[in-house]
Amino acid sequence: MLFASAVGCSSGGGASSSGAASAGGNASGSASEVKWPKNVQIIVPASAGGDSDYNARLFANKLSKKFGCNFVVSNVNGNGGATGTRQVKDAAADGSSILFYHSAFVVNQLSGTTDYGFDSYDFACIPAQSPGNVVTVSSKLGVKSLPELFDYAKAHPGKLKMAAQTGATSYAVAVLLKQAGLDINIVDAGSASDRLAALVGGHVDIILAGYGSIKDYVTKGDLVPLAMDGGNDLTVDGTTIKAITNQGYDIKLPFYYFFAFPKGTDPNMVQAFDDAVEDIVKNDKDYQNSIATTYFQVPTFYNSKDGLAKFDEVNSILKNVDFKG
User: Fold this and answer.
1) Class of domain 134-247 (CATH, top level)
2) Which of 120, 192, 204, 228 is the most exposed place for a label (fewest CB within 10 A)?
3) pTM attached to this predicted model
């Protein structure tokens, strides 16, 4: 469904709640009657400067223009993202707070970082998908492929440090690599931008990062991309970065972003929001060009039902990961 409803902001307060549904609900009235708060926070459980922050800010800009309200991004990092997700879970269901996060939400729950799941929210949609993160090392390590990294780790037991964020997707993939035989010490180094700084500064040896954030370092020869964790190869500037699965290791983790509202939000509001986001993803050329050039993303949208089904697939991949080991 594409955005066609006339919706606007209220001068104060938010829309009243008219029911709840974990998959966004069924609108019982007209989405055109929705009145948004003047200021809407998009809570991103990650530091500024990374891929999640970029995607959220791009949507905030587009949504502000569509609804005539102030959609602003608030970075609420901490505890592997749990601090931010909990803030939205406990927020008023009046449209003033919306969660923008990704597959790490599933990791949070399975690792015990959180004790709640998608049913604690009104799930809106999947508005974007990352091509995955890149297993990245410093050029100083002298490693140019994933098999070479495994060989190096075997020859230097206990030496390599891999940065991750506890309870996040980077941690899950690090654990999967370790379970596959990569001799690494997993260290908590924060969100994507923090991990990149740690690698560039020589404090860790391996990170997972969106290609957009490491491209300049790769071009200068400072960093080396070894493998994609999303399940598919990525070709950039004539160079192909092979997926982990295409290098002999059965490891992949689809990386979906999602929007979710506090439980009990007016279903008409959630539907109006979904319609607007879908229109941006499918029809806004500036949006499409921005995500392609910055993070090499392809426009992707799944409604609430299909989005939750995609996260069921993520759950099935991660449920047997030993997060305690």
Assistant:
1) alpha beta
2) 120
3) 0.82
In angstroms, the CA 243 to CA 239 distance is: 13
**Do 134 and 247 meet the contact criterion of CB atoms below 8 Å apart?**
no
Question: Could you give the count of Cα atoms lying within 13 Å of 172 in the half-sphere of its Cβ?
Answer: 30
Paired with 223 in beta bridges are 138
What pLDDT, on a 0 to 100 scale, did the predictor assign at position 2?
Answer: 43
Q: Where in the chain is the domain with CATH 3.40.190.10?
A: 134-247
Residue linked to tokens 């030993």: 322
For the ranges 138-142, 162-166, 233-237, the one whose mean pLDDT is highest:
138-142
Backbone Cα Rg of the chain: 20
| Domain limits, CATH 3.40.190.150, in the chain | 8-130+255-318
Contact by Cβ (8 Å): 138, 202: yes
- Token pair in block for residue 138: 């410093």
In this structure, the chain runs to a length of 325
Kindly tell me if the per-residue pLDDT of 202 is higher than 60.
yes
255 within 8 A of 102, measured Cβ to Cβ: yes
3-state secondary structure of 81: helix
The domain 8-130+255-318 having CATH identifier 3.40.190.150: the answer here is yes
